[in-house]
Design a protein that fits this description.
The chain is of the alpha/beta class and 438 residues long. It contains 19 helices and twelve strands. Strand 8, helix 13 and strand 9 form a beta-alpha-beta unit.
């Protein structure tokens, strides 16, 4: 459903009245996550970008929406841990600051509520649930002289940034992935009123335009998430008598592991030797292990469970993997495949979401989702030819260096932040320092 144009116009007029000239100061960025770094394995694909931001000439603060009462950081290097400001969503401080913020500018709060209530569906409940944390964020950002708010995900994290921007005038932006686009939480309003909107794939931008009709907004950008690219690779590629395949991802239905096992059973019937390492855990593990036994693959498939990113990368760096395979039914641009590509490992991935943006121009093999025969044929082509594996691996590495290096993508992201902060087209830098000590 498209939000009403009257609500949008009223909100813009209200913020125009609030807009005042900005005060010069060092750039300070709040980066909003859902729960990283308080849950192992969650949102780890942000880490390379955050590390680059930490090393940039910008003051970085990471604010997760959800924080456990223990506030125990479990998934961040020490340098990034120092940037994390964790406060449980309904702590006494959050509730107290939320009340103070609502009293500070009730008119702006009412304007924000009118936007939230413009969409009467499940997203309304979700947005109201994060309202106290959003008000807390507004007060935090004002006191800390923050110059830009950026939300990863277009759902309630973006709602937090939007609300805080309404109350403070600090410009805000959002990164959309894929599932958040499907949920459509105030999607059209956010696309029109964020200072910039980042999509991690061209496919994501196409979905947003199709759902909202927002076609020609100059503040919509496609900018991939980057990864840390190894500076050099081990040139010693062993020609193993039994090639090793790897599939990394949660053991959940949309990752297509059943299709992959069916493809491997087909390859076994063609008398091919191979081993598969399945990295990850999830609700389907027991069922997948049973399927392996039924297909006679138990001696060829190893379920490694959850491993750290460092452990997985180590297997790539040691040239222990010959082919990376992902049979997903739905993806954005899978980071697991990006990391394999960065180590020159040839990849076979289903043609879903934004995958073709990663494996275009001969950087890998795309297969239709849900087609075990096509997947088996693709794997067979690489099992039979070490030359083809080397060629695809080289192209994959080049593709990553050109378009998915975190150093380059983060530099581009910072340019967007700097431009938005200077332009202040979101809601204006209103009263950034007004009563900053109240």
């Amino acid at each position: 459903m498209h939000e009403s144009s009257e609500t949008s116009a009223s909100f813009a007029n209200q913020q125009t009245k609030l807009r005042e000239p900005s005060l010069p100061h060092r750039q300070s960025l709040v980066y909003i996550t859902v729960i990283w770094p308080f849950q192992p394995g969650s949102e780890v694909f942000f880490a390379p970008e955050l590390m680059q931001l930490r090393n940039a000439e910008i003051e970085l603060r990471v604010l997760p929406r959800d924080v456990p009462r223990s506030r125990r950081i479990v998934d961040a290097p020490e340098d990034l841990s120092q940037c994390v400001h964790g406060e449980p969503p309904f702590s006494l401080q959050v509730l107290w600051w939320a009340w103070l913020e609502s009293m500070h500018n009730p008119r702006a709060l009412l304007g924000t509520l009118s936007i939230i209530f413009s969409s009467i569906n499940l997203n309304l409940i979700r947005n109201l649930a994060v309202l106290p944390k959003a008000l807390w964020l507004a007060r935090f950002a004002r006191k800390a002289n923050v110059t830009h708010l950026h939300a990863q995900w277009g759902g309630t994290t973006a709602t937090m940034a939007m609300v805080a921007s309404c109350l403070t005038g600090i410009p805000w932006s959002v990164t959309y992935h894929r599932n958040d686009l499907e949920r459509g939480n105030l999607l059209e309003f956010k696309l029109r009123h964020a200072s910039f909107v980042r999509f991690i794939s061209e496919a994501g931008l196409a979905i947003a335009r199709e759902k909202t009709g927002v076609l020609h907004n100059q503040h919509l950008h496609v900018l991939h998430l980057g990864i840390e690219v190894p500076p050099t690779l081990d040139s010693n590629h062993p020609n193993r008598p039994i090639p090793v395949l790897c599939c990394a991802g949660s053991l959940i239905p949309r990752k297509g592991h059943r299709v992959l096992l069916d493809a491997l059973a087909d390859l076994k019937s063609r008398n091919h030797d191979f081993r598969l390492r399945i990295v990850g855990d999830g609700v389907l593990r027991s069922a997948l292990e049973s399927k392996c036994r039924e297909l006679g693959l138990s001696d060829r498939v190893d379920f490694l469970g959850s491993v750290t990113r460092a452990e997985l990368i180590s297997t790539y760096a040691k040239n222990e993997i010959d082919v990376f395979v992902l049979a997903s039914f739905d993806e954005g641009i899978p980071v697991s495949a990006m990391e394999a590509c960065s180590y020159g490992i040839p990849c076979i991935v289903t043609d879903v979401g934004g995958v073709k943006e990663l494996l275009r121009d001969g950087a890998g093999i795309l297969v239709p989702p849900g087609d075990p025969v096509a997947l088996a044929n693709a794997i067979e082509s690489l099992l039979l030819s070490s030359e083809l594996r080397e060629k695809l691996g080289t192209e994959a590495r080049t593709r990553i260096e050109r378009s998915f290096d975190a150093r380059k993508t983060t530099a581009a992201f910072l340019e967007l932040v700097s431009s938005a902060t200077n332009r202040s087209t979101s809601y204006g830098l209103s009263r950034l320092h007004e009563n900053s000590s109240y």
